[in-house]
Amino acid sequence: KTELTKQPPPTFKWIFFLTYSLPASVLPPLCMSNQTVRHGFPYQPSSMAFDPVQKILAIGTQSGALRLFGRPGVECYCQHESGSAVIQLQFLINEGALVSALADDSVHLWNLRQKRPAILHSLKFNRERITFCHLPFQSKWLYIGTERGNVHIVNVESFMLSGYVIMWNKAIELSSKAHPGPVVHISDNPMDEGKLIIGFESGIVVLWDLKSKKAEYRYAHDEAIHSVAWHHEGKQFICSHSDGTLTTWNVRGQGRPIQTITPHGKEAEPNTETEASSVVQSFVAWTCLSPFIIFSGGLSYDTVGRRPCLTVMHGKSTAVLEMDYPIVDFLTLCETPYPNDFQEPYAVVVLLEKDLVVIDLAQNGYPIFENPYPLTIHESPVTCCEYFADCPVDLIPALYSVGSRQKRQGYSKKEWPVSGGNWGQGTLSYPEIIITGNFLNSLLISITTSLFPVLFLLVMLQVLYKLKTAKVFDRNRSKEDKGSTEVSDEDPFAIQIMAWCPESRMLCVAGVSANVIVYRFSKLEVTTEVVQVGLALTPEGSNFPRLHRLSFCLSSLRSHSLLLFVAFCLLACRVRSTPLKQSAGYQVDLVIQLVWVSGEPPQQISSLALNSTYGLVVFGNSNGVAVVDYIQKTVVLNLGTVELYGSNDPYQRQPRSPRKSRQPSGGKEAEKGQNKKGTWLQTRLRLTSSGSATSEDRCKSPTSGTLLYFCLRVLYLFVFLATVLLSVCPPRGANPLDHRDNSFSRSRSSSVTSIDKESREAISLFYFCETFARKGDSTLTPCLYVGTSLGTVLVLVLTLPPAGEQRQLQPVIISPVGMLVRLKGSVLRMALLDSSGSLLPPSFDPWFEPNVTTDGEEKVPKRRPVSVSPSTSQDLSESQYAVVCSEKQAKVVSLPSQTCIYKHNITETSFILRADVVQMTQGVCLACFCANGHIKTLSLPGLRPLLDVNYLPLTDMRIARTFCFTNLGQAMYLCSPTEIQRITYSQETCENLQEMLGELFTPVETPEAPNRGFFKGLFGGGAQSLDREELFGEIAAGKASRSLAQHIPGTGGIEGMKGAASGVVGDLARARIALDERGQKLGELDERTVAMMTSADSFSKHAHEVR
């Protein structure tokens, strides 16, 4: 599969020898693919359950996913094959099992006693739809209510239906002719397991006697029922209704509620009737020894901007807790799992659409617990993502020290209540960091008022630091905008691309408004003015007048909303003119802004890179490339893409038709000037000015001329409003970022036939390095490689001044030297290898405190020395190898001869979305993710295929935008707007993955049952048990109809182990399983024997006392 480029015979023989002298260090058996863990908030949650003994929380989603949470660091992700929504979850408390009911009328039993939970049994209903499930504590019989109003009973051990069925026509009054509706609630009496309460949607509640198989009491209400909750003594229950009322019923009542309250109803005025709030009641909680009622909903619709609320009624006090998102489900946490014990809640877990909140009920003010899981990755959609492994050891503590100051105050002082499970034995020996940038609307005002990248530590995925980039700009919004929580489609502050150097801690961020912000890391708080550099990137051959800065009054145009919106887009990214107070962490060092040209907005930045050793930031788009010196705050280079080729342009381009100059007098191309001071610095810009203007005048903004000239400029801008409107103001509902991501405009082949595509060649890659710049060079030179969308790699030579004071004064000189190589498709990734095939990392400077030093002077970093040239004996051999990967193929070029020695066509029918040269434990390889879902790895420098897995079909452009590889065989992507999926393509990690995963189930003793007391035990006033096996078994109830439901055995867990075991190992496994089961049965027998002896002693004692 390795293809050699045709060369003359002497050169070909030399290449043939070199091919076999560089064996790949990463062999095919060392690469494989596997999912590791999923982080973030479950996307579109639908249900929730909690095990009070194991302290495990389960959340189901509308896509059929299950997320299980224990203590921080113990998480698990499961997926139902059908993908149907999870409508309800039920834990087998302290049994290590979970029952899930789906919207496709199927019920599944999950085994949680293994690190990767699996389904043991499934039951699919054919003729009835499931609406509600109930599993009593320490019971193996599951009650299932259906849409027809019937209740079926399932044995959770065998997952077989019982012949005992509660039909709706037997439950309601015989005189009633109407159908009661679907079953919305099922629960047994806490003090009598033989009494079952069934709630129907129409408002009818039935107390069913399981032994006599008939309805003992019936309770009717005019409004629909949403939920029912028992009092722990079993004498009363509460119902919530659709009209916002709560009704309290006595079990032995006469058909009327003993109390009806409307917590959020309107007060009655004189001579008027009381009017209840007309909102659907979502949930209702229970009462305890002291009246304690918790419910959601119940508020009226007449309040504009009403937020979802949770109401807590404790005694005479009522607290309304507002939530940021709609409430999906909530449950209360109690220490005891027994429903007949005193229910003293200590917390309530509220599942929102985009967040999980746990409220402390034991403290005044009901503070929330600090969530240890970073469930909210971003408050708005993620637009870009970068993944770093094996970072410097001092980086994590530095980020944590400054990020800890950003945490909110007022959290509960108690520990996080979800604390089940154990951590895995295996651990990662290196830290991992994820940087994500988001898209946040300018009208959304909350604690985070702008977009920000967030750094994550991927041991337990803890949020380290948040950075708000919009603080740099002036954002004037009205009070109406601040009260809005909707996410708009247009935001000029969205992050598009990022570049980060972990060693020097330099960060560079590019936004959709064609602005670039350079950040330095500092541990000290400072107040500085924001320095700004403006430039215009235009294609070669266009004679566009430059519009550098626009600042005019719009008071006379406020009646025209269209002009106001365009003016907002023009002025939205205006840098703050006042000093900016910057806290410890990442602080703004420089802002680079691409300006509008002839009424047209600048093209979005397509590539970005920085180098701390050289002190340079480079970015490019479809017009050209610009290099900025962030040390001197000057523009070093500003060239069109065509100018990078010089006279060696391989394409026959047709220049675009130049537009007529809008200047009052005829303009011509100006010389390139330089200005190092001021907030708007123009350096080496091709400016259009009038005939004999001086260099100093040409650097001034056109708005600094006469009033007539300025008016003509403004008038000219309004002429172009009609053509600019479609590009500036996209239609409502069309996200400009999504439009960019869903249209792959990059070239897919090397044979370019469209002149228009050639004239719009975009910059796709930058790579700083020290290499042999020209063919036949013998010394290493700082260089910048530039990759284009047409598959060309160009070389720029950097001439840097000496370090120290001269670096602050002398300019950096950049010279194009020609083309290195051409490939099919857009260039995606590039790296350098040494003569032994090891990866050569880019040069960097270690981090230093930029604000203060020990001697009080500014600290100037020292540039790393350039490597010496190879010795004379090594001149005949190659010293470096350049690895270049495009959308279609990969090539390895030897340096300094610039000869292609390896070439491999990675894909023919698809194209590559992401490619990275990664460092593995035993060598270097090239990792690629294709649009058809394949993950491929190639050895370096030989380009031998190591791995080709059809991992994930590209169904969402979010995956293409966020997929990224990193060192040591790790990769990640956003599988949903709120979840991060991590994968590994390293065999070593896959083999140790089982040990690294945490355990959800841990052996914990079940709490003792509540003491009934002497008098209750004597007169039979305690809880009454029920032998459900005798009542629901096949002998007493018979067999269920086979057509009603279909039993599907699971493929995982112990049952799967029994079926898959074979040979000697299988016999040992079966013997071990049999011993475990026998030991468990013996243990249960011992427990029953002890319980019988205790009961006999108690009976004997009572009998003697009666005598």
Automatic annotation (TrEMBL):
Gene3D superfamilies: 1.20.5.110, YVTN repeat-like/Quinoprotein amine dehydrogenase
GO molecular-function term, one example from the UniProt record: syntaxin binding
Transmembrane segments: 443-465, 707-728
Localization in the cell: Cell membrane; Cytoplasm
Domain V-SNARE coiled-coil homology: 1053-1107
Ranges occupied by WD repeats: 218-252
Coiled coil residues, start to end: none
GO CC annotations, alphabetized: plasma membrane; SNARE complex
A Pfam family assignment: LLGL
Location of the region described as Disordered in the Swiss-Prot/TrEMBL record: 648-676, 851-873
Primary location recorded for the protein, binned into one broad class: membrane
Keywords per UniProt: Cell membrane, Coiled coil, Cytoplasm, Exocytosis, Membrane, Phosphoprotein, Protein transport, Repeat, Transmembrane, Transmembrane helix, Transport, WD repeat
GO BP terms in the entry: exocytosis; Golgi to plasma membrane transport; protein transport
Family stated for the protein in its record: Belongs to the WD repeat L(2)GL family.
Name of protein: Syntaxin-binding protein 5-like
Organism: Oryzias sinensis
